[in-house]
Amino acid sequence: MTLLQTEIPGGELVARGKVRDVYRAGGRLLIVATDRISAFDYILPTGIPRKGEVLTQLSIFWFDFLREVIPTHFLTADVGAYPAPFPEYRAQLERRSMLVVEAEMVQIECVARGYLSGSGWKEYQQHGTVCGIRLPSGLKESDRLPEPIFTPATKAQTGHDENISFERTTALVGSELAAKLRDLTLAIYSKAADYACSRGIIIADTKFEFGHSGGRLILGDEVLTPDSSRFWPRESYRPGGPQFSYDKQYVRDYLESIRWNKQPPAPALPAEVAEKTSEKYVEAYRVLTGRAL
After folding, report:
1. Residue 189: which residues within 8 A CB-CB, separation 6 or more?
2. Which of 227, 138, 226, 149 has the alpha carbon at shortest distance from 189?
3. For the chain, what are the domain ranges?
4. Is 12-102 a CATH 3.30.200.20 domain?
5. pLDDT tens, residue order, the chain (293 aa)
6. Is the CATH code 3.30.470.20 the one for domain 105-248?
């Protein structure tokens, strides 16, 4: 079953984002990852089979992997343990939902980059920098950086992610929290990237979101998924251009190929494109966890 939107009568819907539906659940939150996919800031009318399962199950894997680095918002994914009325809707929630603590989220997207790609590559070509950080000259697209860098972002009013400097981050959240966010982001990225590389996947970049709960800083949202990260197969990695990836770049490439003007309405995806994208997501889960989904 491809799930584009949850319908839970009696459940208090807090938010319906590009991918996730969030419900209040007895002083906690229930996060449901649907199979919706967005590209170029628009939600497409076609879902990606099993995408919500991958996002949830992979996040749970990483929450456990990182438990000694930082506490997380994750409580349980056992539908039977959810408060009423949610257990009645197991068909919608099984394997794609998790009960989490509610946190006051820090309004900064914490991005770690280990390789030169995406918006970082575009900025580097123009200025020799990424988020204002000066990099060595002569780097090629997809090159590994001398060391991972912290490149925070915030949401502009248009809804687009806006890269900001560390100095701007400090002005927004204070010097102590900004330093903590930077250090945690790079520590988590390095630990995860080393593990992923041992499994045959390069994590080129990724983003984390943190929040405060019970007087402590915790890791929230989703973690190290194909939606929040750039995953490249190590065996096919060749710097000097774009890389084969496990993320939704395949969808973006299709939309570019049909010359969509990136204005509503967003076009539907052919069944073969949706299925191929699903295969990439499921394969990323299998390679990273060593388990079938």
Report:
1. 112, 114, 148, 203, 206
2. 149
3. 12-102, 105-248
4. yes
5. 799 999 999 999 999 999 999 999 989 999 999 999 999 889 999 999 999 999 999 999 999 999 999 999 999 999 999 999 999 999 999 999 999 999 999 999 999 999 999 889 999 999 999 988 999 999 999 999 999 999 999 865 445 678 899 999 999 999 999 999 999 999 999 999 999 999 999 999 999 999 999 999 999 999 999 999 999 999 999 999 999 999 888 898 899 999 999 999 999 999 999 999 999 999 999 999 999 99
6. yes
